[in-house]
Amino acid sequence: MFSREQLQDLINGKIVGSRFPYDTGNEREVEAHMRRLFYHINRIPNLICEAEWNHFGSGYASFVQFFCYRKEDVTIVQEKNGMQEVEISGIIIDICRLAPVAIMGEDHRFKKIRIQTNEEVSGGHGMLDSPNRLYVSEKLEAIEKQVNEALRAFDIKRLRPEQLDKPLSLQVKIPTIYREPNQYIEMDAIFYWED
Fold it and tell me: What residues does each domain of the chain span?
């Protein structure tokens, strides 16, 4: 998947890849490519895609997180005191900022929305912090298929759990909240978040 040198570069925040825009090493070009993918996914009929571009509000994330769902997968749990609680079933796609790869898994999110203004008052981001979370149930297979096609169209490879679960053979310190240094797996070299 990645050589030891490439894994070290990824950990150091260096862009790797032999295809445009990753071959330029230019962060702006890579982000523009990811934004085009985001807009492409949002043009898929009946699919809503939200993106977390700003490192979850703090620190640094080596990936941008998309959350994709259909309107029919939004359930109103409760309406009370001008607030609406909703549950959303969808798919998280973490797209690496540093290499043309992504991971995907299912997520269920809860949001609290002020009914009058449609303002989100609270909610949370799911995390794909382990290869065993990289699965999608039959219920969401249609979304998975559409997103897979979009990733292929943008030359971004979806990585599978078995590619990421190997112990990391490098003796390094990765700026991540996901795992302790003596427990790193290859996934940590590619998808990390320092809060």
Answer: 4-194
